[in-house]
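ok here's the first one, seq then struct tokens
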Amino acid sequence: MSTASLPVESFQARDYKGDLKPIWCPGCGDFGVVQAIYRALAAVGRPPHEIAFVSGIGCSSRIPGYTTAYGFNSVHGRALPIAQGIKLANPELLVLVAGGDGDGFSIGGNHFLHACRRNIDLTYIVMDNRVYGMTKGQPSPTTEPDWDSALAPGGTGLRPFHPLVIALASGANFVARGFSGDPNGCADLIVQAIRHPGFSFVEILSPCVTFRPDQREWGKMVHAAPVNPTDDPARAARRIMTDDGFNIGVLYAGNRAPFRPQTAPAASMDAIEAEFAL
């Protein structure tokens, strides 16, 4: 019987839903993101045992534990190097990474730059709420400079980190932004990201209603990007640099070939032992 005649297994979103119950705060945007991930994985159709889901530390980094995929909850800021190692060791796996703006752009910022540069075929989903939610509301790299809080009276005065600009400039092959209040739209972006070769970066605006109740207004502020996706980095840079931070959709879809290391045939044990013979 040829493989072409074998029945194709279909999956539903529930097939990717783990047994653990999410423990985020009521109203957290991450609830919408995890639902989008379930729907996206069902659309892609890879069985759970062919998926590796890696995360760092933070509210959003709980997501791999809420799926039926193989999960790895790494240390703070180090999800991307671990995910890249997994993908290079087993290229047949579908590798996803989840994180937040603190985990991904502060302690993990250097890894983010070089993951974009290497362009290994994986998908990085960052839930950006512009605050450290798990550690009680400190400003994050993406927090507005004038956001006033008990921990930063009057604001930090620092220019925010711009994830989409940094991703594009560093070499990411796919750059998009979604909103957690639109799970179907996020699911579509994640599907496109997974199917696009190379390093795909999806920023999802995910309100933290506990420490940033003002973000409840984001649902009224997000809007579809007024332009079609482009494969021209210069054009994409102009679009991203001039947007208002609430454009939703695919902003760049490049054509750079993913990084695949040259591999030599595995040496036999006898040959390895011979190298160490006295």
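and now the second one, same deal
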Amino acid sequence: MSSDLVSGPDLGGGYLHQLSIDRTDDRTTFTYHAQDGGADAGGPPIGALDAFGYAHPPTACQFGGPRCWHRRFLLPFAELPRVRQTYNRSRFVMEAMLRQRYAGGPVPVEGALREVVGRVAPAFAREGIPWYVGGSTAARLLGAAVEPHDLDLGTDRAGVDRLGALLAEYLIEPVAPTDRPGGGIVHGGRAFVGTLQQGMRVEWAVPLDPVPAAGGADAEWASVGAVHLLSVTFEGTELRVSRPEYALVRAAGRGATDRQDALAALVRRIGPEPGLLDQLLARSGLAADRADALRRAVQGPVGAGAKLS
């Protein structure tokens, strides 16, 4: 196997970035590399890259050393021009993404939603492709007092590729098989919808590995036909959104207390779906006392404002 550097070192967000390819007879792996660039890169960077799906390799990287961050994609070699384009946009928006994640930088949620919905909703309706909004953005659309860092979309295999085409100029990762820490091998993509200085990270994927039985709230992305959805209207367009129980269990697992309280209040207002929270908690790995506390937190009268799909 040959390993070659095809771009870099390049600057972005306090990191030194490089793009490499590893070629065998039947496949090409493209790798984004990022390492703390210090003063030479306008750094040090204000945060780590694991929030964006990067991971440290098990051994020292020949390009970035022992603390190099990696994102890897499996694509034909002919896709090099497209990968180079997404790599460059990724490093160009890295500063904005880091500030949103670690320094309270504003996330233009409504603007990004308007752009995504305007492109995706009519195209997917014509083509019969199922899709929905998930995660904290779904909860916000349902009325939760949360500030999303990103926009998560659920769809099927065909929808993953179509989203890549509809959001092509915003892509920061190619649509490809890739490894996502904690999520196994997926076929997915990422975009930063907006300008280089201000936008919102958008993510979508379908699993290629079997979803583990202990998937917990990650079952939100297991299969578009199995996810429990509600309907909301955003600026005149009806959208499908995942139920907030998914985000609630995920927030509890991460210890995000403020977000957990807001999500529990939302579930109380619209009314919990019988059995869904118990299913998610049973697979979540949360201690029994914390799971019981979540069940108590969502008890209350059934409210209005959303309809079951």
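notes on #2: The chain has a mean pLDDT of 90. The chain is about 35% helix and 30% strand.
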